[in-house]
Design goal:
Radius of gyration: 20 Å
Strand content: 15-25%
Number of strands: 11
Strand order of the largest sheet: 1-8-3-6
CATH class of the largest domain: Mainly Beta
CATH superfamily of the largest domain: Jelly Rolls
Shape: elongated
CATH topology of the largest domain: Jelly Rolls
Number of domains: 2
CATH architecture of the largest domain: Sandwich
Helix content: 40-55%
Distance between the termini: 50 Å
Low-confidence stretches: none
Number of helices: 9
Length: about 240
């Protein structure tokens, strides 16, 4: 039963066997768990599916450690006025421990997680995982390493907000999206870009129009096509 979407169609024995196989592949500390701990991880892990746009986690409901089998997630902050800014992405075959209670004790800001595409996840119960961190030094090391990596991404976002002009930030964002998607043709609305960058749609639209006038991008409904990556790179590093 390799296809996660078939989990719930199989009997309990097959489900648990598949769950264990996936966890063994995805958790680097698996071989450092006792047989009893491995069994407990399987017992405290569930499979979940989300549609694009679904909220996977909000600050009032820690969801646990997430292993992304298919799709992708977006972690973001949300202001009282409803303004969003993307902190980091969690891609296919990646994991996120920031939703676990043990990691949240180190966080002083609220993190939301949404599915940016149809997604299939394995979610390890946060209370159980916190206990496992206390019991096993390898799990603890994994948790701190993952948390440090995500905070590094958050600090990069904060650096951009504090020290870069908006045109530089937009150039960086477009180049990152091209690298992430593998295509110069980006399926993004101005609203979506504004949410990623923590800005207003009107500001994004004005800057994209300027980029288009300068021949850096081409704009059409729901699409931004990057035409001149060299010029964008030059703009992205203007303040460095």
């Amino acid at each position: 039963m390799n296809n996660a979407s078939n989990y719930q169609a199989n009997n309990q024995t097959e489900y648990l066997e598949t769950l264990q196989a996936l966890l063994a592949q995805r958790l680097p500390f698996w071989i450092n768990l006792s047989a009893e701990q491995q069994k407990a991880v399987v017992t405290h892990t569930r499979y979940a599916r989300f549609s694009a746009g679904d909220q996977v986690r909000n600050p009032s409901t820690p969801a646990g450690v997430m292993l992304v089998l298919l799709g992708s997630l977006r972690a973001y902050m949300l202001s009282d006025e409803g303004k969003q800014i993307t902190l980091f992405r969690v891609g296919e075959q990646e994991s996120c421990v920031l939703a676990a209670s043990c990691a949240l004790t180190m966080i002083t800001f609220d993190v939301f997680l949404d599915a940016t595409s149809d997604a299939e996840l394995l979610i390890i119960d946060p209370v159980f995982f916190a206990q496992l961190v206390e019991e096993n030094v390898y799990v603890e090391a994994f948790t701190y390493r993952q948390t440090a990596e995500r905070f590094s991404e958050v600090m990069w976002v904060m650096e951009q907000v504090l020290f870069m002009s908006f045109d530089e930030r937009l150039a960086v964002f477009l180049l990152d999206e091209v690298a992430r998607s593998g295509s110069e043709r980006l399926q993004l609305t101005h609203d979506e870009i504004a949410h990623h960058l923590g800005s207003a749609r009107e500001v994004v639209s004005r800057m994209l129009k300027r980029f288009a006038d300068d021949g850096l991008v081409s704009l059409s409904r729901g699409t931004v096509e990057v035409l001149n990556k060299t010029a964008l790179r030059k703009l992205a590093t203007a303040s460095h």
